[in-house]
Amino acid sequence: MxxxxxxxxxxxxxxxxxxxxxxxxxxxxxxLEQAPVGGAAYAALGHPLPExxxxxxxxxxxxxxxxxxDWKYDTLERxxxxxxxxxxxxxxxxxxxxxxxAICYPQLTHASSLKPELVAGLDILIIRELTGDIYxxxxxxxxxxxxxxxxxxxxxxxxxxxSRPEIERIAHVAFQAARQRGKxxxxxxxxxxxxxFQFWKDVVTEVHAQxxxxxxxxxxxxxxxxxxxxxxxxxxxxxxxNMFGDILSDEASMLTGSIGMLPSASLNAKNQGLYExxxxxxxxxxxxxxxNPLATILSAAMMLRxxxxxxxxxxxxxxxVRAVLAAGYRTPDIWSEGTHKVGTRExxxxxxxxITGKTITKS
Length: 363
Ligand code: NAD
Description:
Elements: E1 2-8, H1 12-24, E2 31-34, H2 39-45, H3 51-59, E3 62-67, H4 84-93, E4 97-103, H5 116-119, E5 123-129, E6 141-144, E7 154-157, H6 164-179, E8 184-189, H7 195-208, E9 215-220, H8 221-230, E10 237-240, H9 242-255, E11 263-267, E12 273-277, H10 294-306, H11 311-326, E13 329-330, E14 340-341, H12 344-356
Parallel strand pairs: 1-2, 1-3, 3-12, 5-10, 8-9, 8-10, 13-14
Antiparallel strand pairs: 4-5, 4-11, 6-7, 11-12
Helix pairs in contact: 1-10, 1-12, 6-7, 8-9, 10-11, 11-12
């Protein structure tokens, strides 16, 4: 099982190092190979996604990714900015399904901006279509308006579009994921206003006929945004398009309190995947050894489950994370009075100790 390890920039190197340590103690036949990506790759090789890194990712069963981006690269032309590496990997690997679980661990309910009773036990999965929609639809651009409210004025435009196969494959992914969980899918659309999303709704309904054991509900995106903060526990799996998914998955991530706890996976049709924390490179805390590595460690667990078919190993990692939280270990982003504040490395140590069955000692 080959894993391309791409730590990237900022805290990426610190948190990926801990996830790699966790993978190494599982005693699985894993082959890990590291390569630069993002700003680090631009600095070393002149491109955020060098050919050698892309080749490594394409040949691997899975990619473990840290984060990319640094303010010092913000003045580079767009095609050379670190963030282009993620878009390039998504495109070249055909990663069309983005999985973003939002789980609220019992010990961290205080970190949520919602009342504890609304989020305690929260476990939802947002599946976002990642390669279509208005983000990639052509044509797009700027021009002089020939009609509309201000003919003759300068205007910009994008194109929202989804083809039947694009909707069908993401719908299958959602129904299959729901089968492993609470057996309920909420398909989020804006069918009342947008042609594209009336089509989305129709196709999802058709695919649903193949999954009689899974319940399907349709919800408009504005209502979904509201329900996520009103009664988030009523959701199980949410499936939606690229733009709505972008917004709703960030909203859902905040329900859990800390972005440092949230893993993500992006999969292609062959179950090859890119696994990364939901957060960015956090340049404000990079190099201080205080970043929370748990989102990356949990991303590695998702990798074991979805791309490497090692569900037992995935369970071991996830149970170890639960155990360290129960034992009171907290990085500063999730720390509260009465718990034990640790840095990135100590948190990694604690997870490794929990996996190997050693007593978790507070240093
Ligand atoms: P960010 O997610 O990097 O940071 C937002 C806030 O959360 C910061 O205060 C940061 O310190 C904190 N934070 C993030 N991860 C944390 C962790 N593991 N532990 C503790 N605290 C954590 O978002 P940003 O500041 O908007 O962006 C910083 C850079 O990251 C930018 O260059 C941006 O483009 C890039 N970015 C990359 C990705 C990615 O690689 N997938 C995603 C988002 C942003």
